[in-house]
Amino acid sequence: MAEMIHARGESLARERLQAATVLSEVTQRLEEMSNHLLESDSASRSRFDDTESLNDTMMSHVRELTDEVSGATELGLLQSAVSARLESVSRQICDFRAREAVRLVEYNGRAEHMRERIADLEREAQELHSKLDLEKHGARLDPLTGVANRKCFDERFAQEIALRAQGGAPLGLLLWDIDNFKVINDSYGHRAGDRVLQSVAGCFTSALRAADFVARIGGEEFAVLLHGLRLQDAVNIANQVRTAVQGLRFHFRGTPVRITVSCGITELNREDASEQAFDRADAALYRAKSGGKNLCIAA
After folding, report:
1. Which of 44, 241, 215, 89 is nearest to 142 (CA)?
2. Which of 61, 144, 200, 255 is the most buried (most CB within 10 A)?
3. How far is C-alpha 71 from the chain's CA centre?
4. Does residue 143 fall inside a structural domain?
5. Overall pTM surpassing 0.70 (yes/no)
6. What are 257's strand-pairing partners?
7. Are residues 59 and 22 in the same domain?
């Protein structure tokens, strides 16, 4: 129990650290986007102000040129005034275009940098999504045996109960217990016990169909959901699995270790709650254990 609590604590600490890292990275990206928008807004205001200034200057030149034309008495003086005004206007337009070119280069640079950062963020988001999927999948597996854990079983069982209540296909529930597991642990040590658990879990998964669901629900106890099978069919399959486990040739440090399992079986009814179905199978498992072990008993 202490090891389980410690492992769970370490898992939560890793999850918190990963979440903090993700939030830090997202915050950094958002700050970069905010700065880009502020720079773009500042550039837009600068361009607007520059355009307004150019427009005011042009209008001033037009007004002054109009006054000079109106007051001109000699053609030569008028030509000189017009030429000077046009030269000034041309120079200011050239300066404006030069500033526009600089602003365009700066804007394109910022836009390209932002596109790269957005591409990075999208890639990181995809990697994070994949990583979270793996973490989510791993959080539903028993780390020792590789089959589903109790949390995953509870979720799947609740789904199957809901489907059965709506008229879904029959479902068989098998509860398993490794016989004399405490004796194995006490006689050969926990390493041997772990290997027995792994061997039994492997036997379950290889002996059952791909559509069936196997989970380790605690200690030496396993649960199996047989989709689409009535009670008698579930009993037949349970006995096949029990025989397969009994046939395991397990040795630890050269000593043969006999492994058997007991099973309680029930078929889900449409009106069943998860507790009712589980209790029926559990009561049948108790009868199998008290009846001599290495038995499959149907509720």
Report:
1. 215
2. 200
3. 80
4. no
5. no
6. 250
7. yes
**Which range of residues forms the domain containing residue 225?**
150-298
Closest residue by Cα to residue 45 from 1, 3, 127, 107: 107
Last residue of a domain, one of 117, 138, 159: 138
Measure the CA angle with vertex 99, ends 96 and 104; round to 5°.
120
Do 74 and 103 lie in a common domain?
A: yes
Q: Is 280 among the domain residues?
A: yes
Told to judge if 220 belongs to the known catalytic residues of this protein, a careful annotator would answer: yes
Could you count the other beta carbons within 10 Å of the beta carbon of residue 12?
A: 10
Shared-domain flag, residues 280 and 214: yes
**What is the identity of the amino acid at 289?**
K
Number of domains the chain is built from: 2
Question: 132 and 154: one domain?
Answer: no
Q: pLDDT, tens digit, for every residue of 220-251?
A: 999 999 999 999 999 999 999 999 999 988 88
Return d(Cα 189, Cα 198) in angstroms, integer: 15
Do residue 177 and residue 282 come from a single domain?
A: yes
| Sequence-ordered strand ranges (E) for the chain | 171-178, 213-218, 221-227, 250-252, 255-257, 261-267, 296-298
In a domain, 25, yes or no: yes
Catalytic residue among 3, 106, 220, 221: 220
Closest alpha carbon to 36 in 129, 98, 121? 121
215, 262 Cβ separation under 8 angstroms: no
Report CA-CA distances (Å) from 138 to 144, 152, 153: 12, 10, 14
Nearest alpha-carbon partner for 46 in 102, 109, 92: 102
For residue range 84-94, list pLDDT tens digits in order.
777 777 777 78
Q: Which residue has the tokens 């194995």?
A: 184
Over the range 14-44, which residues count as b (16 or more CB within 10 Å of their CB) and which as e? eeeeeeeeeeeeeeebeebeeebeeeeeeee
